[in-house]
Design goal:
Blueprint lengths: L1 H22 L6 H50 L1
């Protein structure tokens, strides 16, 4: 997750540098721009899939914790 955030930060900083270069009058070639857009799309897709998988793991852990809590509650209520 932290690596994904670092990738997004790096991509954002690269975008800022690229925009600054374009505003200063430097023009990149179309191939470079297409590669850059593809790179951003790939990173965004990777980040999205990482977030989805992390969310799935979190939900599974919550469900497991709730199951264990049910056992504890039942055990203590039957004990009394």
């Amino acid at each position: 997750m932290c690596a994904g955030i670092g990738d997004v930060t790096a991509a954002f900083q690269a975008a800022l540098k690229s925009d600054a270069a374009i505003k200063d009058g430097e023009k990149g070639d179309a191939t470079h721009e297409l590669m850059w857009e593809k790179s951003i799309d790939e990173k965004a897709h990777t980040l999205t899939s990482d977030l989805e998988s992390d969310g799935s793991v979190a939900i599974e852990k919550l469900q497991s914790g709730l199951r264990q809590l049910v056992y504890v509650v039942l055990h203590t209520s039957l004990k009394n």
